TrEMBL record:
This is R3H domain-containing protein. GO terms for molecular function: RNA binding. Pfam families: R3H. InterPro entries: KH_dom-like_a/b (IPR015946), KhpB (IPR039247), R3H_dom (IPR001374), R3H_dom_sf (IPR036867).
Amino acid sequence: MLENSTIKNHLEEILRLVGVAHEGVEHIDDESGVRFCIKTSESHALIGQGGETLAALNHIIKRIRARGGKEEEREEMFYVDVNGYQEQLFSDIKAKAKVLAERAKSLQANIEMEPMSAYERLFVHNFLSKDAGVKTESKGEGRNRRVVIKCVV
């Protein structure tokens, strides 16, 4: 498996190649997961509209990691963040998921979340798996794929 320092080096090389100035790339491993945080004054160039550029950067780095490791090591979850953008996004998603799970339980109905990326859906599934009162599943195709929160009666 590619070590975290190697991933950090790959990120720094990509930033150099695309000409984005940055103050550093920090590896953080805490309760919210493994992430590589890029500090830059040019965050708009790395985040893009609606986070699309950042999603592409995450995909590239995950492909690089997958090519450098054994099959069982490829599943380690991590993400790249720029100036706390992803961290704030996941915090917002967690808050929405919590409210919608409570709504699903009180109404005893299925509640659909807005469409989100595969990584965001996985985040919601993992977060709500701790709540015995609900279960989750994904529904839809492509960009319209979303999480459905179902009340467990």
